[in-house]
Amino acid sequence: MDELNHTPLDYLPLQRLFYDDKLPHDMEDNTDYLLALRRVWVVGIGWGFSNNSEFARSTEDAQEHLTLNTSLACIRAKSISPLPENDPEGILDHLDDGPRSVELPVAWWSCITFLMAVAFAWGL
Amino acid sequence: MAQPLSPLADYSAEQLIQAVKHPNASAKVLVPDPSGFNLLEPWPGATGPVAGWQFAIDIKSDVPVTDTELYTTLTRIAYEPPDTVTNVLRNASGDFVPMDGSWYPCMRLWVSNVLKSGEDKDDVDADCSSHLSGKCLRDLKKSIASGFVSWTDKEATEHCPRVGIPDSCIEQMGEIAEDSETQIVETGELSSRAAILFFSLARLDTDQIEIMQWMN
Q: What φ, ψ does residue A120 adopt, rounded to 5°?
């Protein structure tokens, strides 16, 4: 492939970036990231002809002869790194299967405290 | 509505690509038939549809916004050629594919604040059948095709016009504002032949759909 044979309009960009401009937020607020994880993104593409195509130039009544291919796909992102700890809307509870890492120490300390209380009571 | 801060406008294309290079969340799906075409062949393609094209999504949280102590979340959606033809279609950077000038791909992203997955992480079907009705899917495809139909009209000015959400999809996807504005940021740091366009959206109300028009 010789890229020099192509003009700027002959390139199809493959990457698009989306951001929701409600998003600027404090570091501790991960609400929008967690919502993005749950979001189902619908992507569509139509494979059409350019007005520079031979088809468009030569076909007087192109609409009747139009054979356009279109595709739709749904996609959802899955977490591949530890989720942020902050969860102001409780969304994380629906996304995580297991207990959050920050919850584990709390659970252990609760258990130890309970055992100490029982032992203390028996000692009395 | 106050003018929003725009990390897309403040950052270069290279910085944005770098920002999502190590995402917090990611996924890929095969595009249902017709998956794609060999863009090097004149439209409509001599060899027919080429299977294996994918949509890939990457989400990066906590991307800093310039000159503030605020952060945002970036989502990148990439349309990826199949491995079997990658070496043919992709340029050296991997961000673009050359195509014959007779093609005009019209791409859209519908960002619904209503359409969400359930607690089951694997409940999204690539063909959208788990979330959208058959009539909605057919109407969405028609909405994409309508731009090309109008293109055969000699007085048409838009090749890939912005269209509203079909009535048959409102119940599942929510309402839509058809006049949502798009912001186009064209960076000057890449060569003119490889100019990259980023699109962002004006924010709509929570329960509305936002459409990103990918190509003008």
A: -65, -40
Alpha helix (H) residue ranges in chain A:
31-38, 54-58, 62-65, 92-95, 103-123
Distance in angstroms (rounded) separating the CA atoms of residues B111 and B87:
31
CA distances, A66 to each of B38, B41, B152, B171 (Å)? 19, 18, 9, 31
Closest residue in B to A62 (Cα) is B152
Q: What ipTM score was computed for the predicted complex, to two decimals?
A: 0.75
- Provide the token pair at B106: 């019209």
Mutation for A interface: B26, B151, B183, most A CBs within 10 A: B151
Residues B154-205: pLDDT tens digits?
666 666 766 668 889 988 888 754 333 333 222 222 222 222 223 322 222 2
d(CA A46, CA B147): 9
Contacts of A19 in chain B (CB under 8 A): 7-8, 72-75, 200
With an 8 Å Cβ cutoff, is A124 touching chain B?
no
Q: pTM score > 0.90 for this model?
A: no
